[in-house]
């Protein structure tokens, strides 16, 4: 069992920056593909960014060039650096871990952290 705990959410003005963190329990963090998802009210949860075990990254089109996903395997921590945020980035952000290398098929989820972007 893996526990994921997100932190770093909050209220930020449009154009500002925020960094989310996700700390994982256990010793196999480096073996997981990791991702950040978000869900806005009334909308489906969507994959925002993913990072593979080898560090390769992928991003959803709406956040390309603004968000950066990274991981520190020594600290069992996943990050999402959010720059130039927009009101449409407002959502609950979830950390997810996949044991099969497919960030679009996660097995474990965090509890979520709220990000609110004011205009």
Question: What's the structural blueprint in terms of helices and strands?
Answer:
Blueprint: E1 4-7, E2 10-13, E3 18-24, E4 33-39, E5 46-51, E6 57-59, E7 67-72, E8 77-82, E9 91-98, E10 108-109, E11 113-118
Parallel strand pairs: 2-11
Antiparallel strand pairs: 1-3, 3-8, 4-5, 4-9, 5-6, 7-8, 9-10, 9-11
Elements, N to C (H/E): EEEEEEEEEEE
Structure summary, number of beta strands: 11
What's the average pLDDT?
96
* Cα distance spanning the termini: 40 Å
Q: Major sheet, described briefly?
A: 7 strands, mixed
Oligomeric composition of the shown chains: single chain
Integer-rounded radius of gyration = 13 Å
Sheet-strand content, in percent, reads over 45%
Could you say which overall geometry the principal axes of the C-alpha atoms support? globular
Structural class by secondary-structure content: mainly beta
């Amino acid at each position: 069992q893996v526990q994921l705990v997100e932190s770093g959410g909050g209220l930020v003005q449009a154009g500002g920056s925020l960094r989310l963190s996700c700390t994982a329990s256990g010793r196999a963090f480096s073996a997981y593909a990791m991702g950040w998802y978000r869900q806005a009210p009334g909308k489906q949860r969507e994959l925002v960014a993913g990072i593979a075990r080898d560090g390769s990254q992928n991003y959803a089109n709406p956040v390309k060039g603004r968000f950066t996903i990274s991981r520190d395997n020594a600290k069992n921590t996943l990050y999402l650096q959010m720059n130039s945020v927009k009101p449409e980035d407002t959502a609950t952000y979830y950390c997810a871990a996949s044991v099969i290398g497919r960030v679009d098929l996660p097995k474990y989820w965090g509890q979520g952290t709220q990000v609110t972007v004011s205009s």
